What we know:
Layout: E1 3-7, E2 10-12, E3 18-25, E4 34-39, E5 46-51, E6 57-59, E7 67-72, E8 77-82, E9 91-97, E10 101-102, E11 106-110
Parallel strand pairs: 2-11
Antiparallel strand pairs: 1-3, 3-8, 4-5, 4-9, 5-6, 7-8, 9-10, 9-11
Amino acid sequence: QLQLVESGGGVVQPGGSLRLSCAVSGGSLDYHAMGWYRQAPGKERELVALMSSGGGSYVADSAKGRFTISRDLVNNILYLQMNNLKPEDTGMYYCGRPPNSWGQGTQVTVAS
Length: 112
């Protein structure tokens, strides 16, 4: 069973950057596709970026050009580098593999 622990969230001004990390245990990132999801207050959880087991990546249009998903296969960590953050990026960010494998989330707040 996958266990996922996110870290790296915080409060940042618009235009700032954060790097989220997701430590994965109970399975290997080169065997499981894994993604970053965001849930804003009052909204449904949405996919932000995804990395396949083979290393291919997808980034949602809202984050394209600003966010980069990557992974460290040695330490089994999934990253989300977020640059040029906007207030609409605010939310709880989850590392996950739907439907049942989710971390506890890390809060990102973008505000001046």
